[in-house]
Amino acid sequence: MQFIIDGISFDFLPIGWERAGRMATSESGVRPLLQTVNYYMSYCRTQAQEIAVSAFKSLALLNQAYYTRMWGHFREQVMNFPIKPDQLDPYLDTIMFSHSKDEIMSACEQLTKDTLNLISERKNRLEGIRSYKDRMKGYYEEEKGMLNKLLTACEKGHYETAFFVAIGVQDGLSRALYAAEKGRWPGILDSGKYREFYYRFGYPDLVSLLDPTDFEPSRLAVVHLIEKLEEHLCSEDVSLNQFDSVAEFETFIKNRI
C-alpha cells in the first residue's frame, strides 16, 4: 500500500527473504555465463546446458507448442517450429561439442540474444491495453519519497545523491509511462525506446541538468516534474492517496474498513 501524508511518502510492500536475496545478489539467468572464463569446462557446460534448456522452453511458448519428448530430443522438435533462431543448429553444436570456453560462451550469448529478439518481436505484435489506472496506481505515492530525497539533495548541494536519484527517477518514470501507454513493461531489448513517452509528454531532462556547481536548475526541474506528474495522473483518472494530516489519513482508512 502506498500513500502520502503531509508530503511524505510511505510504501508498505510485503517481500519474502528469498526475493530479497535475489535482489541483493542481482541474480539472472545469463550473468553466471559471463563468469565462466575463469572456471572449469564442466561448470561452463553446466551453465550452457541451463541456458539452452531455457531457450528451448521459451521457443515452445513462442510457438504455442509442447514437447512430447524431453532430454536429447529437443532439437528435432524445435526444427519443426515456425519461430526459432536461424542459427540454432550451429549454436547447439558449439555448446555441446566445443572444447573452448570462449566459443561456448559466445554461442550461448548469441542464442540468448536471438531468442530474446524473437520474444521482443512477438510482444510488439501483440496489442497492449493502454491503462494508467492499472500500471501507475500507487506509483506516485511510492516515488514521492525519491523525489523528496532529490529535492533535499539539490537544496543541500549533495551531488552524489542527486546524481544517482535523478537518473533513477527519470528512468523509472520513463518505464512506467511506457507501460501505461503500451500495456506492457519494456523488455530487455527495448533499449532506450521506452524513453520516448517521457520526452513526448514534456517531462524535464533531469540527467542533462546535473551539475555539481549549480543545483538550482535541477531543483526547479524536480518541482516542475512533481507538478506535471500529479496533473498528468489526475488527467488519466489515477487517484492519488495524499493526505494533509494523520487524522485525515485515519479517516480514509476507517472509511475503507
Number of domains: 2
The count of DSSP E runs of length 2 or more, i.e. the number of strands, is 3
Distance between termini? 14 Å
Please tell me what the overall shape is: elongated
- How many alpha or pi helices? 12
DSSP strand content: under 5%
Query: Which residues sit in consecutive blocks of at least 5 with pLDDT less than 50?
Result: 15-30
Mean pLDDT: 80
Helix content: 55-70%
Structural class of the helices, strands and pairings? Answer: mainly alpha
Order of helices and strands: EEHHHHHHHHHHHEH
What would you report as the Rg, rounded to the nearest angstrom?
24 Å
Q: How would you characterize the overall build of this protein?
A:
The protein is mostly helical and 257 residues long. The protein has two domains: 2-14 and 130-256, no CATH class; 35-125, no CATH class. Helix content is 61%, strand content 4%. It has a three-stranded mixed beta sheet. Helix 5 (88-97) packs antiparallel against helix 6 (101-125), helix 8 (139-156) runs antiparallel to helix 9 (159-182) and helix 8 (139-156) packs antiparallel against helix 11 (216-235). It is elongated, with a radius of gyration of 24 Å. The relative contact order is 0.12.
